[in-house]
Design goal:
- This protein folds into two domains: about 110 residues, Jelly Rolls (Sandwich), CATH 2.60.120; about 70 residues, Jelly Rolls (Sandwich), CATH 2.60.120.10.
- The chain contains no helices and 18 strands.
- InterPro entries: RmlC-like_jellyroll, RmlC_Cupin_sf, Uncharacterised_HutD/Ves.
Length: about 190
Amino acid sequence: MIIRLADCPSQPWKNGLGRTREIAVQPSVDGGDGFLWRVSVAEVDSAAPFSAFPGIDRQIVLLDGAGFTMKLDDGRVHALTTPFVPFAFAGEAKVDVALAGGPTRDFNLMVRRAQARGEVLPWHEPATRRPDPATVLVFCARGSIDTAGGRLHVGDAWRPPPRAVDPLTLCDGALALVVRVKPRAS
């Protein structure tokens, strides 16, 4: 299934201090926090703190803009200024933000820590690849990508069907953010 970012409505952050577009969530929930995993694209246009998500592991990836510096309550300071490089942190962390320039957009993965673990992998070499069974979403961050469901352009995402065997083709200059989620071992 192909998801067009333009079809994902902008909605307020949980804390009301920013905007996000939810691309996919599993299981589907209406505005609740009962998800196993969630993928979104956030618009950061002010130095607002991030929303808290207790029990959630997060990964964030700068898509465009000058980025920002994240000051976490565990003492870490991270400059999210290099596009397409994932950064992981705990959802319950208090995160203050200082913009490096103007507004930015970032890609976000949230996974319920007690039930699963997730990762965002940048794929950027022109090639044909097969997503593995843990792949739940492929996001086109740059260029175009051919999938079994059709062509992705910047901002589009593809949810592979269960046990997908069809390959993806990254066209010249394409960059995919591949989201993998695996259940935690009991």
